[in-house]
Inverse folding.
């Protein structure tokens, strides 16, 4: 997972890594991992609870007082219990929930060096992803009003620009879960994961032409292909611990994946990893990475240090 936090003088910072309030009625997503975890590394089943510690730390520098918005706290959802959480940060911060249901924290920072740290103890009641291969596509005319926004172009997801490629490559495939998985397989193979290969302004079309990117680019490209085929898709970012998989070579970072609307519900797909995972913790959802920036700064900020943590804190309970 490539570190992709970026800071700019003002406006929305685009960070790769972009849950639902308990009243939203979404279905829990579970994926049995027995067929996917490397031998000897399978430690949880879909039915077991998982205790996690998640968090991050930012070290920042500003030549003048600045304000900002940080989005790193887990979304509220039925399957995630927040046992405790704490901020270690300068005074003058408070939280709110944005229009997508993401938890955000507003800060006022003095000139000079600042440190913002967040940590939470969680219990995941349904820690594994789920595969529902029989989930079908919903005809456009039957899509709920609230999901239509996720078939439209957005700043980084360009179904209009990539529509020809999408229909040429995937239009002939059977509609439903298998077609979305075919998109994931293609994006996973087409893009080379290369740290530093993209920047906060790289679109899905840019990544497609370059053939390389970081996790946000994998998500943006897969979302663009889905939307071109009239399959609603939304960008997701959060924490993913290394459970049931080999430890990555690079330092832990936030991760980006996406959700497709199939069979009347939202389902998790991951073009970067292209495998079910245990312990995903959603921080933000939106149209693309614009809606779920790690840090939005209003004033000149420089990121001087960054760490992310996501790991089990105890055996399943």
């Amino acid at each position: 997972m490539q570190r992709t936090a970026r800071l700019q003088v003002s406006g929305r910072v685009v960070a790769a890594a972009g849950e639902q309030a308990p009243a939203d009625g979404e279905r829990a997503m579970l994926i049995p991992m027995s067929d996917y975890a490397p031998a000897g590394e399978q430690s949880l089943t879909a039915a077991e609870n998982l205790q996690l510690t998640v968090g991050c730390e930012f070290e920042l520098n500003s030549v003048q007082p600045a304000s900002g918005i940080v989005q790193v706290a887990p979304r509220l959802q039925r399957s995630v219990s927040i046992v405790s959480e704490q901020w270690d940060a300068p005074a003058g911060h408070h939280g709110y929930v944005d229009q997508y249901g993401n938890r955000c924290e507003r800060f006022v920072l003095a000139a000079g060096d600042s440190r913002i740290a967040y940590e939470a103890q969680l219990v995941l009641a349904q820690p594994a992803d789920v595969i529902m291969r029989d989930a079908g596509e919903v005809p456009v005319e039957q899509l709920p009003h609230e999901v239509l926004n996720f078939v439209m172009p957005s700043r980084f997801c360009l179904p209009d620009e990539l529509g020809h490629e999408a229909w040429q490559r995937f239009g002939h495939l059977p509609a439903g879960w298998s077609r979305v998985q075919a998109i994931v397989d293609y994006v996973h193979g087409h893009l080379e994961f290369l740290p530093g290969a993209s920047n906060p302004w790289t679109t899905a079309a840019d990544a497609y032409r370059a053939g390389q990117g970081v996790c946000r680019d994998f998500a943006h490209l897969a979302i663009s292909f889905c939307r071109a085929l009239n399959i609603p898709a939304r960008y997701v970012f959060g924490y993913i611990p290394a459970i049931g998989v080999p430890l990555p070579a690079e330092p832990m970072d936030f991760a980006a994946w996406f959700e497709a609307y199939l069979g009347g519900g939202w389902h998790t797909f991951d073009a970067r990893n292209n495998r079910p995972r245990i312990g995903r913790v959603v921080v933000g959802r939106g149209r693309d990475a614009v809606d779920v920036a790690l840090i939005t700064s209003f004033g000149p900020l420089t990121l001087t240090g960054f760490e992310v943590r996501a790991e089990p804190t105890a055996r399943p309970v």
Notes: The domain at 47-127+293-312 is CATH 2.60.40.2250 (Immunoglobulin-like). The longest strand covers residues 50-62. The first helix runs from residue 163 to 170. The chain has four helices and 14 strands.
